[in-house]
UniProtKB/TrEMBL annotation:
GO terms for biological process: negative regulation of cell division; phosphorelay signal transduction system. GO terms for molecular function: ATP binding; ATP hydrolysis activity. This is Response regulator receiver protein. It comes from the Bacteria.
């Protein structure tokens, strides 16, 4: 059996004026190891005072509390570093939207699914802890060069997500001459190896017994290397072995890969699971793949709404339209109008050329003569690498602002500036 990593401990503040409701949450989470529950009510600003006093890792707030969006806004203003989940007993989309705009990270509509609640709590806390770690590292100048992580996801099967991943990875390697890694997180389909014609004896499941000693050397031993130079962490060949990989283990693997590569591209299944949700949370950019068909666009719009409810900033989303311009396709203007998102890039329909590439295991970006598809992937890769440059510019601007703050102190002291 693989060795399981210990779950992180955390403190959860439950805010509700109904003792019965708070007790129900407490019972639901009682058997979950490492979660400490604190109850408080919300009237007369008590919720904010409780958050300041107990310094929880996360706040759970009852959605039927009077003035719930105002309470969220007060919490977000007073303790912005603490994630907030609002729990509704029934679907309240308008009120949920108000809560998200007020500062909540997530709204859940049912208390019946314990796994969903626990998973959401742990994801949000882990994300906030990573954010704090990064801020401290940036402020102290102790920030190592980390890989840019791109998670590819489609809300509908058959949209060509894996094809987008492998060709973008190869194009990025060709364009930047940097270290590129593909992680096949579509654990049950395992299509990346097929499209790259890779027959390799080890895969991501072989890492699970070695989480404590996991490092760049071990990852390098487990990964396959494609002829393009792209390294690939394959999904298990046996479907049952996909059950071995936990969310925590996956995040640990990506954390090590950030130090071992310059770009990490993650392929995910169209049906979200704990691992793919972790991939969406931890990445720098989500490349949302859709095809120009009504059914695919409808599912894409629903997924984009989900990203908003999860609190992902809009700039984290990059919309990619595959098979653009194919016969009977919805035109791009109508897509933008329907989805209400800018289209980041398009890939033309490949037809027989794409079928041949899939069957032979030779991606179109490996062809000698650059087809229109290969050129489109170069354009896509250029835009995604420009996204990295923009992120660097923003980080540099933040560091400069910290330096300026330090200079304004009465006694200029770099140590003080680093701790502001």
């Amino acid at each position: 059996m693989p060795e399981q990593t210990s779950l992180m401990s955390l403190k959860c503040l439950v805010l509700d004026d109904s003792v019965i409701y708070a007790e129900a949450i407490k019972q639901m989470l009682a058997s979950e190891p490492g979660i400490e529950i604190i109850n408080s009510h919300t009237s007369f600003g008590e919720g904010v005072r409780a958050a300041k006093k107990h310094k929880p890792d996360i706040v759970l707030l009852a959605g039927d509390t009077p003035g719930v969006s105002s309470i969220v806004e007060s919490l977000d203003s007073s303790v912005p570093e603490i994630p907030i989940i609002v729990l509704f007993s029934s679907e309240e989309p308008d009120l949920a939207r108000e809560c998200i705009l007020a500062g909540a990270q997530l709204c859940l509509y049912s208390l019946d699914d314990r796994n969903e609640l626990v998973g959401s709590i742990r994801r949000l806390v882990a994300r906030e802890r990573r954010r704090r770690t990064q801020i401290v590292a940036q402020a102290t100048g102790d920030q190592p060069r980390l890989a840019r992580v791109l998670t590819f996801h489609s809300a509908k099967g058959g949209s060509g997500t894996t094809t987008m991943v492998v060709n973008t990875a190869i194009s990025l390697a060709q364009l930047t001459k940097k270290r590129v890694v593909i992680v096949d997180a579509a654990l049950q389909s395992a299509d990346v190896g097929v499209l790259l014609d890779l027959d390799h004896p080890t895969n991501i499941a072989d890492l699970t017994p070695h989480m404590k000693e996991l490092d760049e050397d071990l990852l390098s031993e487990i990964m396959a290397t494609h002829s393009s130079g792209v390294k690939v962490l394959l999904a298990p060949a046996q479907i049952e072995r996909s059950e071995l990989i936990t969310e925590e283990q996956f995040l640990r693997i990506i954390g090590v890969l950030r130090k071992a590569a310059d770009y990490v591209l993650i392929d995910t299944p169209h049906i979200l699971d704990a691992v793919s949700m972790a991939a969406l949370d931890t990445c720098d950019q989500i490349v949302v793949v859709s095809t120009p068909e009504v059914a695919a666009l409808r599912n894409t719009a629903r997924f984009l709404q989900l990203t908003s409810r999860l609190g992902y900033p809009q700039e984290k989303i990059f919309l990619l339209i595959n098979r653009a311009g194919s016969k009977g396709a919805v035109n791009l203007d109508d897509i933008k109008k329907h989805i209400k998102y800018e289209i980041g890039a398009t890939i033309p329909s490949g037809g027989k050329k794409m079928i041949s590439a899939t069957n032979t295991g030779v991606p179109v970006t490996m062809e000698k003569g650059k087809s229109s598809m290969a050129k489109a992937f170069i354009t896509l890769s250029t835009k995604l690498s420009e996204g990295e440059l923009e992120s660097r510019r923003k980080r540099t601007a933040k560091i400069i602002s910290w330096i300026r703050i330090g200079r304004k102190q009465e006694k200029p002291n770099p140590a003080v500036a680093q701790n502001t």
